[in-house]
Amino acid sequence: MGRRVELSAEKQEEADKLFKKEAFNIVASDMIALNRSVSDNRDPQCSRVSYPKVMPNASVVIIFHNEAWSPLLRTVHSVVNRSPPEYLHEVILLDDFSDRAGLGEKLDGYIKDTWPDGIVKVVRAPERQGLIRARVLGAKAATGEVLVFLDSHCECNVQWLEPLVARIKESRSALLCPMIDVIDAKAMSYNGIGAGSVGGFWWSLHFSWRPLPQRERKRRKSSVETIRSPTMAGGLFAADRKYFFEIGGYDPGMDVWGGENLEISFRVWMCGGTLEFVPCSRVGHIFRSSHPYTFPGNKDTHGLNSKRLAEVWMDGYKRLFYHHRRDLLVINPQFNADAGDFSDRLQLRRDLKCKSFKWYLENVYPEKFIPDENVIAYGMVRNPSSNLCLDTLSKDEKMVFNLGLYGCQGGVSSNQLFSLSQSNELRREESCMDSVGGEGSPVKLMPCHGSRGHQEWTYNLETKVIVHSSGKCLDKVEEKNGGEVKVEKCNGKDSQIWEFENYIGP
Ligand code: LR7
Ligand code: MN
Questions:
Q1: Domain named Ricin B lectin: which ranges (predicted)?
Q2: What φ, ψ does residue 173 adopt, rounded to 5°?
Q3: What pTM was computed for the model?
Q4: Tens digits of per-residue pLDDT, 354-407?
C-alpha cells in the first residue's frame, strides 16, 4: 500500500553505499513488489465522478536512460494494472541509449513474457538523445489518440488515466498534468500531497511550486475541476497527440535535461492552448536530488536550453533571465555560451501567431513579480560612504536568513539587485526585507507576505534614508564584506544613507 520500507542495519549500509550512484534507495525499491498497490489518496469527490463511455485512447510514453530495473518496471506495471484496457492503446518504453546491464535483452524478454499481448513496446534510440528529443522519438512512435508522458520512476494511482483522457475529449488544446505525489527517495513510501499548488518559475528559469491563486479558487466550482497552472514540472503530462505536434512538440535543439518544461508551458499558453492540473489523476514520482547519468560534453544543459527558451519566447523579459546568467549573454567560447541556432523556433512562433510574453504575464501569471516594472526603485542599494551594497551573499532564497552587505559589483551580481515595490516592500523575486523593528535587530530576507507591517519600508529621496514601518532607519552593522544590516534610531549618520541604482519614483 505504498508504506515505507524498513531496512536492517546491514541492508541500510548497502543502501547508503548505492545511494550515491542511484540518488535513491535501490535496496528498498528492490524489496517492494513490482506491482505493489498504493493507497487511494484522491479527494473523496473523485470516486463519484462518472466518465463518458467513449473516450480517446492513450499511448503512454516512458523515456529512460540507464534507469534502475525495479523503479522502471514498477512504472510499467502500475500503468498497465491501473489503466482501463479500453483507454490504454499501448505503453512505449523509449530507451535513450542505455548501456546499463539488464536493459537490453533481459528487458525485452521480461516484457514479452509478462505482456504477451504486445501492449508494452520497447523503442530504442540509436544514440543518446537527452530527455527532450527522447520524448519526441517516443511520441513519433506512438499511435494512440492521446500521449501521456511519464518519467521512468513513477507509480500511477487508481483511476489516474480516466480524468486525463476525459478532459482531452472536452478540450483538445489542453495540456494536462496529473497531481504529482512524492515517492520518498529514502524509504520508497508513496506520499500523497494536497491539490493546493500550481507551477511557477524563477527568473533564473527554474521551475517552482506556488500556492493556488485566489482567482483560481474562485473560478473553480468544485474540487474535481481542473486547475489552470502557469507552468508544469515537465515530466508527467498528457496531450492530444496531433495537438502536441501542431504546437511544435519540443525544441529539438535542447540537450539532456532542463528548460523544456517552461518552454512548453509558455508556448502552450501563448499559442492558444491551456495548461491544467487534474486533481483526480495522481501519479507518484521518485524525487532524486542529483542526476544519476552523464551530461555528454559536461555542458550546462539547463542554462543553454533556458537561453534558447528565453530568446524564443520571452521577448524583452529575457533580460531578467540574463541578470542571473550574464555568462550566457555573450557567445564566448571560453564559457560555452553558444545555444545554437533557434531560427526554426522563432518561425514556429510566427506561424502559430502566438501572443507576447507580456500577454502571458498579464493574463496567465499576474502574480509574478517583475523586479524592474511598476516599482519605485530598482538595482543596487548602495551605502555611498563605504561603497557596500545590500547583498544576498548567494544564500538560498527559499530560506529565511540575515541580509548581508558586500562591495558593490557595478550591477553584474544578481545578488545585489533589489526592488522597492509600489507597496513599499524592499524585495527580491519572492522574498522581502523584514525587521521586527527592535533597535539593532538584524534585517532578514524572508517570503513576502504582502501585508506591509514588518516588511514595509519607505525611501526618502531628500535625506536618502530608508525608514522601516517601526520608524527606525536601515543601518549597517559592520563595515565589511559579509556584514549585516539592522534598523536603528534615525540619526542622519553616513551608515544610514542609501542610494538606489535606478530611482523611478512612486
Ligand atoms: O539523457 C537523458 N535521457 C533520458 O531519457 C536524461 C534523462 N532521461 C530520462 C530519465 O530516465 C527520466 O525518466 O528522462 C526522465 C527525466 O529525468 P529525471 O528523472 O532525471 O528528471 P527530474 O525528475 O529530475 O526532472 C524534471 O525536470 C526535467 C527537466 O528537463 C524533466 O522535465 C523531468 O521529466 C522532470 N520530472 C518531473 O516533472 C517529475 C515530477 C518532478 C517535479 C516537480
Ligand atoms: Mn524524474
A1: 377-501
A2: -100, 20
A3: 0.96
A4: 999 999 999 999 999 999 999 999 999 999 999 999 999 999 999 999 999 999
Architecture of domain 9-286: Alpha-Beta Complex (3.90)
Complex ipTM value: 0.98
Residue nearest to atom 15 of ligand 1 (CA): 151
Q: How far is the CA of 286 from the centre of ligand 2 (A)?
A: 6
Ligand 1 centroid to residue 500 C-alpha, Å? 41
- Cβ 135 vs Cβ 263: under 8 Å: no
Ligand nearest to the CA of 199: 1
To test the pocket of ligand 1, the residue of 97, 131, 251, 261 to mutate (highest count of ligand atoms within 8 Å of its CB) is: 131
Q: Among all ligands shown, which has an atom nearest to the Cα of 72?
A: 1
At the fourth CATH level, the homologous superfamily of domain 306-363 is: ppGaNTase-T1 linker domain-like (1.10.8.460)
Q: What single-letter amino acid sits at 213?
A: P
Among candidates 366, 258, 288, which has minimal Cα distance to 68?
A: 288
Pocket of ligand 1 (CB under 6 A): 63-65, 67, 96, 130-131, 134, 151-152, 180, 233-236, 256-258, 260-261, 285, 291, 293
- Residue 451 in this model has a pLDDT that exceeds 90: yes
Per-residue pLDDT band at 446 (split at 50, 70, 90): very high
Helix (H) or strand (E) holding 176: strand 174-183
